Amino acid sequence: MENNKEMRAWLDDLNLNHPLVIAGPCSAETEEQVLKIAHELKDTDVSYFRAGIWKPRTRPGMFEGVGALGLKWLQKVKEETGMKVCTEVANAAHVKLALEHDIDLLWIGARSTVSPFIMQEIADALEGTDKPVLIKNPVNPDLALWLGGIERIYKSGVQNIGAIHRGFSTYAKTKFRNTPEWQLAIEFQNKFPDIPLINDPSHITGKRDMIMEVSQEALDLNFDGLMIETHYDPENAWSDAAQQVTPETLVQIMVDLKIRKEGSSEEDYNKTLNTLRAQIDVVDNQIIELLGKRMEAADGIGALKKTKNVAVLQNKRWNEILGKMVIEGEQHGLSEEFILRMFKAVHQESINHQEKIING
């Protein structure tokens, strides 16, 4: 799959002076609920009204969507508000029904993207459509799998393509519902700058009070838009209540977000500079997180040494680490002087942690 500016045509045709915004409830619950939310969003910067019709759930017995009935509700949204509408499709039958009901945009969820078999089935059903199709990243952080899914859709003849970054599952406990792994999204952009990239802060955070923070980071990283779950009564939503915001909150988020606009050469310079700085911020946060994990391991070593009455400083082990890191650093363009200074500081912090544990 090669870069192709035609993949951005559907987004460029919207002629927006702001990032794309896709918003609406996680799940369509009732016709009244869908229409009420749509009317509250129709005069805002929202370009597409979203609602989940079929809801793939982790475990059976949970609310799994209203099904094809909800497509008629989305048709009514179009009639009454003039908004474009979109929904998730998870198999060929969903695609057929969505196209029959003239849904304007389709997206493929993370649980579908993870399976090449499902993606090929959906690609075959989408063959030749001119509807925009957005592909969410798979649940696991596998860039090749994500790109493979996009490639299957592209090879079916779909020209209007985009990607949705919704974060990745992890066993580690973090502040996110799905860890963003920003570096992977940055790599995606670098490989395929012509594919519009939309951020889904709702699924990344799982918490409405973090939506603004993640949305801003996405825009600083030059994402093309946002998909934000919105409900007039989020506390009582039938699915994902904690991550939905009210229409009023969504409007305020859009007002508060700092948008890096294109313009003169000076503005272009500042936009590129801000994007690169945002990428550095991502890496800096990863460094701090990794150093924290390293010190947790050091604490464990300190506790073990205390039980065996072993000295904190082990010179042989320390010299082995330094030698290995100098070689690794050279392979990444880092000088020996820098590696020695950095790891001496890290080593000293590790010693401080162990001594604190050994000395009680």
> Radius of gyration, rounded?
24 Å
How many strands in all?
Answer: 8
Task: Compute the number of structural domains.
Answer: 2
Q: Look up the CATH topology of the largest domain.
A: TIM Barrel
- Give helix and strand order, one letter per element, not per position: HEHEHEHEHHEHEHEHHEHHHH
Please count the helical segments.
14
What CATH architecture of the largest domain would you give?
A: Alpha-Beta Barrel
Main sheet: strands, sense, barrel = 8 strands, parallel, barrel
Q: CATH homologous superfamily of the largest domain - what is it?
A: Aldolase class I
CATH class of the largest domain: Alpha Beta
Main sheet strand line-up: 1-2-3-4-5-6-7-8
- Mean pLDDT, as a whole number? 91
Unreliable segments of 5+ consecutive residues = none
Proportion of residues in helical segments = 40-55%
Strand content: 5-15%
GO molecular function: chorismate mutase activity; transferase activity
Domain Chorismate mutase: 267-358
InterPro entries: Aldolase_TIM, Chorismate_II_sf, Class-I_DAHP_synthase, CM_dom_sf, CM_II_prokaryot, DAHP1/KDSA
Pfam families: CM_2, DAHP_synth_1
